[in-house]
Amino acid sequence: MIVCFDIGGTAIKGAAAYAADDVRPLARQQTPIHDFNAFVSVLKSAIDEIGGTPECVALSITGIIDPDTDTSFIANIPCAHQRPLKADLEAALGLPVLIANDADCCALAEYGVGAGRGHRVVFSAILGTGVGGALVIDGKLINSVGGFAGEWGHAPVAATRAGNPPEDLPRFACGCGLDGCLDAICSARGMEKLHRHLTGKAMAAEEILESWQAGEADAARTIDIYIDMLSGPLALVVNVTGTTIIPVGGGLSNASALLEALDQAVRARILRRFTRPLVVRAECTIEPGLVGAAVLGFDFVRQRSAP
Fold first, then answer.
1. CA dist., res. 121 & res. 124, Å (int)
2. Strands 140-141 and 161-162: what pairing?
3. Start-to-end C-alpha separation, the chain
4. Of all residues in the chain, what percent are helix, strand and coil, respectively (each to 5)?
5. pLDDT band at 193 (very low <50, low <70, confident <90, very high)
6. What percent of the chain is modeled with pLDDT above 90?
7. What's the pTM?
8. Cis-peptide into 67, omega within 30 deg
9. What are φ and ψ of residue 22, in 5° steps?
10. For residue 252, what is the DSSP state?
11. Are 7 and 290 in contact (CB under 8 A)?
């Protein structure tokens, strides 16, 4: 048995995991964002509630671990930010601790028990509040020691001319400090920004998608440009990594027509030809952070017990 946590700036979700497909959540607890001792106490109380001696503790976090310094970067949890979090937690809990980014855990969940089952290479994409991703190869995270691998949403690669007929576009500023990131224009807020730029109308992403499916011309133009901007970089990810499945999570993944359009556009732009869908909706939509942490933990246990 291992103990899993999905830790965000608002809540800490804990669970006892007896297998990757047998994860039993506990009640959520508020995240103490300013007091590290209180933060540790929440974890300890969950471990005590489960009982027994877990083989390890696996965490899904909304941040990253710097692979060069082992220092955490978790801006929305100040007490866990910029510290040797793994070492600190192992000392406090007396157990091995594994830490992975929440997008990485989504990818592990899809590889282990979701849409990525049976695939050697799985690139999990997030299309929601942000554009994120993670890469799993043969069951291993490509950035198992931490870092930014898989973050395809952040780089100045967004097209400045897209759609049919082509539309000239500015390089929108991104929260990461760069201009022209996919995160700035292809996230849900980015779609809204794009629509406002093209039409002057302020609409929520859900409304834009509904209008598009209803055949409204302005929304159709926005989605045409959106798909053109997103599919090229995603096709490049496929060519570079050799992924054979792209499970998509995040709020925009609920729009099946959007994923179908993105899938067709990506498959038309890659070197390998697939006769089946490549871009699909993620299957682990319930507690993917906990499930991914469980996959991470049980892989650690297997490695430790191997001869």
1. 10
2. unpaired
3. 20
4. 40, 20, 40
5. very high
6. 80
7. 0.87
8. no
9. -135, 75
10. G
11. no
Q: What is the pLDDT of residues 156-176, one digit of tens each?
A: 999 999 999 999 999 999 888
C-alpha–C-alpha distance, residues 15 and 289, integer Å: 11
- Grade residue 149 by pLDDT with cuts at 50, 70 and 90: confident
Query: Amino acid letter at 48?
Result: D
Take residue 204 and report the two structure tokens written for it: 């929520």
**Both structure tokens of 237:** 């990810």
Average pLDDT value for residue range 32-56: 95
* Nearest residue to 204 (alpha-carbon basis) of 190, 183, 224: 190
> Three-state SS for 135?
strand
- The per-residue pLDDT for 102 is 86
Q: Which carries the bigger pLDDT value, residue 196 or residue 148?
A: 196
Task: Provide the residue type at 289 as one letter.
Answer: G
Strand ranges, E, within the chain: 2-7, 11-19, 22-25, 29-30, 57-61, 64-65, 72-73, 97-101, 121-127, 131-137, 140-141, 161-162, 167-168, 246-249, 279-281
Residues 144 and 94: their CA atoms lie apart, in Å, by: 22
Mean pLDDT along residues 40-55: 94
Our measurement of the distance from residue 306's CA atom to the centroid of its chain's CA atoms, rounded to an integer in Å, reads: 30
For residues 14 and 43, is the Cβ–Cβ distance under 8 A? yes
